[in-house]
Amino acid sequence: MKSLKSALFAFAIIVSGTVYSQSSALFAFAIIVSGTVYSQSSEDYAALSEFLPAGKLSGLQENQAGYAKIAILNRHAYYLGDPGPKDVSMYPDVSEIAPLYPDMPTITTDLIESGHLNLMGYNFKLKQNEYLYFRIGNSDKILVILPIDLCIRNFNSETE
């Protein structure tokens, strides 16, 4: 098993060009082989560790394809939008979405614009093929959450 790990580690270095640890390399290899997701940054994984309890994080890491998907959705499935001609008050307020973990920050336009919103730390009910929209306090902006399938497809096409 040790020689297999070493071989996978070397393969992941060759394919990805960047490896932070042997476990990262094995993870990268699993993602490449699964075809689910091609690559994402170490920052995407680090973002999950900012709020997930160690036990939950460890459990996610056991299913590497699922872990990759959650890491991508956490930081790439949303953007700050403009409601266009629609009245922003027609959308539910983002403050109605409960955080799933203690110490999660209030969702603000600044948090969204910075790209540091940990979407998976809140009780959003992401949809496979449907957008979600939420108004952000008293601003004239909305939080747009992409459908899961579209987010993964976009991410894969950007990283190929």
Main structural class: mainly alpha
Euclidean distance between termini CA atoms: 30 Å
Total discrete domains: 1
- Outline type: globular
Q: What proportion strand?
A: 5-15%
Biggest sheet, open or closed, and with what strands and sense? 3 strands, antiparallel
Structure description:
Helix 1 crosses helix 2, helix 3 packs across helix 5 and helix 5 packs across helix 7. The protein has one domain. The chain is mainly alpha-helical and 160 residues long. The two termini are 30 Å apart.
The gist of it:
The protein has about 160 residues and is mainly α. The protein is built from 7 helices and 3 strands; from the N terminus they run αααααβαββα.
